[in-house]
Design goal:
There is one protein chain. By secondary structure, the protein is an all-beta fold. The protein contains no helices and eight strands. About 0% of the residues lie in helices and about 30% in strands. The strands form two sheets. The protein has a four-stranded antiparallel sheet with strand order 2-1-4-5, with no helix packed on it. Strands 3-6-7-8 form a four-stranded antiparallel sheet, with no helix packed on it. It is elongated and about 50 Å long. The relative contact order is 0.29.
């Protein structure tokens, strides 16, 4: 599973978001805060041959976000881990503040995004 981490200045508060598609900016949000995201990890290649590779971990990214209005609804995506099967599956991207683009990916216009990991290949593991 990916993770969206929102440490912000008021009382050194940190929010961990593990699910959802939107987030409401709290009333005590300050004008400048750090946003950290971790993409979903991929599954391994579940093939029956020896040496099937493990899945890559999700990427990590951080930025400072300014200009969010208190009470505003922000579009988010928390990346999910790939489901293991015969061919495995990639992890999905985690992002904060999507404003346009190709839905559900880092190709979107977002404040910050972390790519999901790639499925493992035989005999190598997947890219993180």
């Amino acid at each position: 599973m990916g993770l969206l981490i929102l440490p912000y200045a008021v009382d050194a508060r940190t929010l961990f978001i593990t699910a959802g598609t939107s987030w409401t900016v709290p009333n005590d949000w300050t004008s400048q805060n750090f946003i950290e995201v971790i993409g979903g990890g991929a599954s391994g290649n579940g093939g029956s041959q020896a040496g099937s590779g493990g899945g890559g971990g999700g990427a990590y990214s951080t930025t400072t976000v300014t200009g969010l209005s208190r009470g505003a609804s922000i579009t988010i995506q928390v990346g999910q881990g790939g489901v293991n099967g015969n061919n495995g599956a990639d992890g999905t991207d985690t992002f904060f503040n999507r404003t346009g683009g190709v839905a559900g990916t880092c190709a979107d216009t977002v404040s910050v995004c972390a790519k999901g990991g790639s499925v493992g290949t035989s005999p190598n593991g997947g890219a993180g």
